TrEMBL record:
Official protein name in the record: Heterokaryon incompatibility domain-containing protein
UniProt xrefs under InterPro entries: HET (IPR010730), HetReg/Transcr_Mod (IPR052895)
Positions of transmembrane segments: none
Basic and acidic residues: bias regions: 424-439, 530-542
Region (Disordered): 421-457, 515-542
All residue ranges annotated as the Heterokaryon incompatibility domain in the record: 122-263
Organism: Pseudocercospora musae
Length: 869
């Protein structure tokens, strides 16, 4: 390639930046003079620094190891500590200087016997990770070595906001204090987060920097605390920009994180930060809960606001926002003392999972793991390593004055069947309770045991004969025996694999127990009379052993190495075992994943969906199994199975759930779904209501509201008049647009229509074969002709199941009778018929929601076992 001419104008590109230069020819050398040398040098310097940082050696977390000391020895088992964590010491610096820190290993506050130092007073950071690109770094200093650690822009902004120019600051930050690339360490450290947040001086909530008028929104929140002005603000059109700014603020990504529920809920004190503005969480939560309750007035306000296009639903459905849910939850999750110390939990894991759909997790397993420690019936276990032979079960003891854990070790291969723990207390006056089975003279024998035998665990499994469902499931799965851990749960008993093994008599149990040798334990202490923490933990351990069967029942191992289906099975096994109900199969809680079986309800069935503008709008009807407006163990509004307990089984290796029940009917005719809450005119034709001058058929208007009101009580009789009024407003006898009618109608009609939307949205009206004109059915939008209406034991509402025979939908096989069609049923075929069902969803069958199907035989077929996949 020839040289360019003398004094030619060219350009040079260095690391993505282009700058012009002029080339001069000399006699013996060529030189380049940069036209814009200074900016290019600065850019090159900055770019090279980023490249060098990326190329630098990453921080080795073994420098602040959380392994047990003996794990560093050759051949030792690698066991992660459950009594220690890392703290970040953020070094002081000027606002624009590089972030620098140290990582320090500290013990948990209650672990006094741990050799690691006690933690300094620290704050815990709660923030949204957000995008990780942006070339931001924090330097971790370890002795004379400096390790650049990449961090996201949002975390960079938060650390700069909380860094001091005068002193070092101690923080706990999950992205830096946990080795995120080490699944084993995460499995141990994540269960400790509840203690870390609970013992922090303050939880710092970081919403991000200034955007969308957030500074004005933070000031507006302070102003709303003056209740004398609040009522004026929700009707004054001038205030609408401030409400819009506050709405934008509480839609920030932080409010959708699932982890924030425990981070804020466990905090003794929490402060919300947005840029350089801050406010106490309790004050912030008070204002946004008042915002949700003022939604009717705010709809009128925005309807009159030209600046927001007179859109009454500009703010969307506020009650579904994560911010509103969080504000309502934080003070209701726990029982607390006056100093904010937690003494107990209010809700079951099932209630939490089915009610927290507004909160998301980037890791699908965290849908469960992020809320395990908030439930009163779940007992998380940290899985420290694959080679560990013992697991430590940690649960809070509710009758202790502080939130402190109690640890108890169990063998890794301990059975999950119903067991009798063999208690060995030497105190003859102990209040052991009904499950304290002490053989005679065991104390004398126990005293002679060696120290090692005292650590031995003894337990005895009581077996029962194989049930009918065991045999059917065994034959359905090709004659294989189901793993004992997945055996049918019937009335809280676990059945043995062998069908011939009889239930042992109580005398046999006692005889077997007296033939064992029993280790001795010191005299039991009372938790309240304990003199120090060591005695308190020992007493609490005794309390834990007395609760052994219950704790084993709620035990869930936190293991990020598990397949997602196995994690969800863990949850369902616990939820169904505890509640003896399978209503959870009708409550959407799992992230949308096409590979999951149909009996795991996914978020795309949720009643509300998030638009691209961050506004929640209704997309489906509310679940029928849940009493409206209630979280927890509220009475169910329906009882289609008439209280019959569930009979179920989830095989260990498979995608099925086996449930017992019966077929009630089959869909004969279906109408168009009520998309967007628009009731098709065909619905009125289907029930013979052609003249709206007459009152609507009772079965029709009661079906539209599920025969209950918004509080779960019986539907009021005056809703018949409201129904007639609403349908009389339709234009030219067309469809009923419920959302349009709600903008301008009497309050009684509005109350009726709001309930109608909760019940019919995206559902379709259907008629059934046997019940015929006696009843109506509201079925899921994807229901088809030929689908079965079934009542499953343990489910409070009927469900729609689709039958498959040898992998083909049964309705298709029956409808096609062409002799050469491969889907045609062939009764002469020697092929073994394999039948399974797809779970379509719950449904409302008028007149059958209270167990009426069990009154008359003509309403039902024989008992069946459904293999649902």
């Amino acid at each position: 390639m020839p040289y360019p001419n003398k004094d030619s104008q060219l350009s040079i590109s260095v690391l993505g930046w282009t700058t012009p230069f002029r080339l001069h020819h000399g006699l013996s050398m060529r030189t380049i003079s940069l036209v814009d040398a200074a900016p290019l040098c600065a850019r090159i310097s900055s770019k090279f620094m980023i490249v060098l940082r990326h190329m630098s050696r990453r921080y080795d977390y073994s420098n602040s190891s959380l392994l047990h000391n003996d794990s560093n020895e050759p051949g030792a088992t690698h066991r992660y500590r459950t009594d220690s964590f890392r703290l970040l010491r953020l070094l002081r610096g000027a606002p624009n200087s590089d972030l620098k820190c140290n990582l320090k290993v500290r013990r948990l506050q209650h672990e006094e016997e741990c050799e690691n130092p006690e933690p300094e007073p620290y704050d815990a950071l709660s923030y949204n990770w957000g995008p990780q690109e942006g070339h931001k770094f924090i330097e971790i200093i370890e002795g004379s070595n400096v390790y650049p650690m990449p961090i996201g822009p949002n975390l960079d902004a938060a650390l700069r906001q909380f860094r001091s120019e005068d002193e070092e600051v101690f923080l706990w930050v999950d992205a830096l204090c946990i080795d995120q690339s080490n699944l084993k360490e995460k499995g141990v450290q994540i269960p400790l987060m509840r203690y870390i947040y609970n013992h922090a001086q303050c939880v710092r909530v970081w919403l991000g920097g200034e955007a969308d008028g957030s500074s004005h929104a933070m000031d507006f929140v302070e102003g709303c605390l003056d209740l004398s002005d609040f009522d004026k603000r929700i009707v004054n059109v001038v205030e609408s920009p401030h409400w819009a700014a506050l709405s934008a603020l509480i839609r920030r990504p932080w409010f959708t994180r699932r982890w924030i529920i425990q981070e804020v809920g466990l905090a003794k004190e929490a402060v919300v930060h947005c840029d350089d503005k801050h406010i106490e969480w309790r004050k912030f939560a008070s204002v946004i809960t008042m915002l949700a309750r003022a939604q009717p007035q705010l709809r009128k306000l925005f309807r009159e606001s030209a600046g927001f296009k007179n859109h009454p639903d500009y703010l969307g459905d506020l009650s579904e926002l994560g911010a509103i849910r969080l504000a309502d939850l934080t003070d209701n999750l726990f029982r607390r003392m006056s100093d904010r110390t937690i003494t107990g939990r209010h809700f079951t894991l099932e209630a939490l999972m089915s009610s927290l759909s507004a909160f998301e997790a980037s890791e699908p397993k965290d849908v469960l793991y992020a809320i395990l420690w908030l439930a009163n019936d779940a007992h998380p276990v940290a899985k420290s390593a694959d080679t560990v032979t013992e697991q430590t079960l940690t649960v809070p003891v509710e009758d202790t004055p502080t939130l402190s854990p109690v640890a108890m070790s169990f063998p890794e291969d301990a059975t999950f069947q119903a067991t009798f723990p063999l208690r060995t207390d030497s105190d003859p006056k102990s209040d052991a309770g009904a499950d304290d089975l002490r053989p005679p003279d065991s104390t004398q024998r126990a005293r002679a045991l060696s120290e090692q035998s005292r650590k031995t665990q003894f337990e005895m499994t009581v077996t029962a004969p194989m049930s009918e469902l065991d045999r059917v499931a065994q034959s359905t799965m090709g004659g294989s025996v189901i793993d004992a851990k997945a055996t049918l749960r019937r009335s809280s008993q676990t059945h043995d694999e062998s069908p011939s093994q009889p239930m042992p008599a109580l005398s046999q149990i006692v005889t077997a127990m007296t033939q064992q040798t029993f280790p001795s334990r010191p005299r039991r202490l009372s938790v309240r009379s304990a003199k120090n923490d060591k005695e308190r933990r020992q007493a609490a351990g005794d309390h834990l052993r007395r609760r052994f069967p219950k704790i084993r029942k709620g035990r869930i191992v936190v293991d990020y190495g598990k397949e997602i289906l196995e994690v969800y099975k863990d949850f369902l096994e616990l939820a169904i075992s505890q509640s003896r109900s399978i209503d959870i199969l009708c409550m959407p809680w799992a992230p949308t994943d096409q590979t999951l079986p149909s009996w795991i309800p996914q978020m795309n069935r949720n009643a509300f969906g998030l638009t691209t503008s961050g506004v929640y709008r209704r997309v489906n009807a509310d679940p029928l199994v849940k009493r409206p407006g209630h979280l927890g163990r509220a009475p169910k509004p329906y009882d289609a199975a008439r209280g019959r307990p569930t009979n179920w089984m989830i095989p260990k290796d498979g995608r099925s759930i086996f449930v017992e029940g019966m077929v009630l009917d089959k869909i004969k005719q279906r109408e168009k779904p009520a998309w967007d809450g628009v009731i098709p005119e065909q619905w009125m034709q289907a029930v013979g209501w052609d003249d709206q001058k007459h009152s609507p058929p009772e079965r029709f208007w009661r079906t539209l509201v599920g025969n209950i009101d918004g509080a779960g009580n019986a539907a009021p009789i005056h809703w018949e008049i409201a129904c007639k009024y609403a349908f009389a407003q339709r234009a030219h006898g067309g469809n009923i647009r419920t959302s349009d009618l709600l903008l301008d109608c009497p309050s009684t009609v509005a109350e009726f229509l709001e309930r109608v939307q909760c019940v019919v949205w995206s559902r379709r009206l259907a008629k059934l074969e046997r019940l015929g004109e006696e009843s109506l059915c509201l079925a899921p939008g994807k229901a088809k002709k030929g689908d079965f209406i079934c009542i499953l034991y343990g489910c409070s509402v009927p469900v729609v199941l689709r039958e498959y025979v040898n992998g083909t939908a049964a309705a298709k096989r029956i409808s096609c009778q062409h002799p050469e069609c491969p889907t045609r049923q062939n009764s002469q075929s020697a092929e073994r018929t394999k039948v399974h069902y797809e779970f379509i969803g719950e449904c409302y069958v008028h007149g059958m929601m209270g167990g009426e199907a069990f009154n008359e035989k003509r309403h039902r077929t024989d008992y069946k076992i459904f293999d649902v996949r």
